[in-house]
């Protein structure tokens, strides 16, 4: 296996820094491969530019859309609305229909519909649900919606509209909710959202952001425990990385060994839930090391993988597939194996 040269983060150095991690990774990998088979998906949707010597991007366009433009009432400390600037703005139902029509004409396969939050932590999706239903009927696109906090009525409306999956960030620390998200809510509100999604019957894929509390672990395991009570369609782990211009731009991300520890704990709690390493995570040597550890731990999918991840998957003899969809669709890809 080709390891990253120099720098702070190498997989081998990371393994030595957390007692028992090597054994945990081995056990997690065994559980995953026993339950899902020795197969890994690498996802490359079009909303992020990705350089790789080993990948030719699969055909299909899958952009991200913001129904609030660059507006977000929360302006969380780690994001400050900066991520919204990378999305296609569609601030009215009419504009959303135009954007999706253009995606279809260009050969697109789907889209992620997201946006900034209102002061109560919700993406204001309700006025757009009728249009989403039209998008599904007319264009047949895969539509994934990021909702923020959600109630049962909205979840049921999204299911009726034919949404393929709901994405939701889950936080397991009240302190992080208030200090980083700057949201007047508690972890109970996040659990109520999980309950609403489960009761609605819609496919839902929670996200846990490792290191959200200023690069430290604070509530990640509690978030996983909450999620495990509701048997999601899949789970996505993402990793804090500093974004220039935000209040946390000088904060360091958690090291790869810590990310791997959270990943293994997730697998032990949810042995039969598909898991992915999502697109939001540090780049460079950090990504190389994190991805290698995730592959060893039996992760089912990685978005925008490093070349080191692909090489490690090949070294382990895993069957590799590539997709232009969002990695939240891993539960469908696994099901397609029969």
Number of structurally distinct domains: 1
How big a fraction of the residues is strand? Answer: 5-15%
- Gross morphology: globular
CATH superfamily: Aldolase class I
Number of helices: 12
Number of strands: 11
* End-to-end distance: 31 Å
Output mean pLDDT.
Answer: 91
Q: What structural class do helix, strand and pairing data support?
A: alpha/beta
- Helix/strand order, N-terminal first: HHEEEHEHEHEHHEHEHEHEHEH
Please state the second-level CATH architecture: Alpha-Beta Barrel
Residue windows where pLDDT falls under 50 for at least 5 positions: 1-17
- Within the largest sheet, what's the order of strands? 3-2-4-5-6-7-8-9-10-1-11
* Cα gyration radius (Å): 19 Å
Biggest sheet descriptor: 11 strands, parallel
Helix content: 25-40%
Characterise the protein shown here.
The protein has 338 residues and is α/β, with parallel strands linked by helices. The chain is built from twelve helices and eleven strands. The two termini are 31 Å apart. Helix 3 runs parallel beside helix 4 (129-139) and helix 8 (220-228) packs parallel to helix 9 (256-269). It is 37% helix and 14% strand. It has helices spanning 11-16, 21-36, 93-105, 129-139, 152-160, 174-179, 187-200, 220-228, 256-269, 284-296, 307-315, 330-335; strands spanning 39-43, 64-66, 88-89, 110-114, 142-146, 165-169, 204-210, 235-239, 275-277, 301-303, 319-323. Strands 3-2-4-5-6-7-8-9-10-1-11 form an eleven-stranded parallel sheet, covered by helices on one side.
């Amino acid at each position: 296996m080709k390891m990253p040269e120099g720098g702070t983060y190498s997989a081998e150095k990371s393994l030595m820094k957390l007692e028992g991690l090597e054994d945990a990774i081995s056990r997690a990998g065994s559980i995953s491969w026993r339950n899902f088979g020795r197969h890994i998906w690498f996802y490359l949707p079009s909303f992020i530019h990705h350089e790789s010597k080993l990948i030719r991007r699969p055909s299909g366009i899958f952009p991200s859309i913001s129904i609030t433009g660059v507006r977000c009432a929360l302006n969380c400390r780690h994001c400050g609305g900066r991520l919204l600037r990378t999305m296609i703005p569609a601030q009215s139902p009419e504009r959303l229909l135009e954007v999706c029509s253009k995606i279809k004409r260009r050969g697109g396969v789907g889209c992620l519909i997201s946006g900034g939050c209102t002061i109560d932590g919700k993406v204001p999706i309700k006025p757009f649900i009728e249009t989403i239903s039209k998008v599904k009927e007319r264009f047949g696109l895969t539509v994934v919606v990021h909702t923020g906090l959600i109630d049962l009525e909205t979840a049921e409306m999204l299911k009726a509209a034919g949404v393929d999956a709901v994405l939701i960030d889950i936080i397991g620390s009240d302190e992080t909710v208030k200090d980083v998200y700057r949201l007047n809510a508690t972890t109970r509100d996040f659990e109520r959202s999980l309950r609403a999604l489960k009761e609605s019957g819609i496919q839902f894929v929670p996200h846990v952001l490792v290191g959200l509390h200023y690069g430290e672990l604070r509530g990640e395991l509690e978030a996983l425990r909450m999620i495990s009570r509701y048997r999601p369609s899949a789970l996505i782990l993402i990793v804090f990385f500093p974004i220039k211009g935000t209040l946390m731009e000088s904060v360091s991300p958690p090291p790869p060994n810590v990310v791997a520890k959270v990943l293994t704990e997730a697998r032990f709690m949810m042995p039969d839930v598909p898991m992915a390493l999502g697109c939001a995570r540090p780049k460079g040597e950090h990504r190389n090391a994190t991805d290698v550890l995730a592959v060893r731990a039996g992760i089912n999918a990685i978005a925008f993988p490093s070349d080191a991840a692909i090489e490690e998957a090949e070294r382990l003899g895993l069957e590799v597939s590539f997709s232009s969809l969002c990695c939240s669709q891993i539960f469908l890809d696994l099901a397609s194996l029969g």
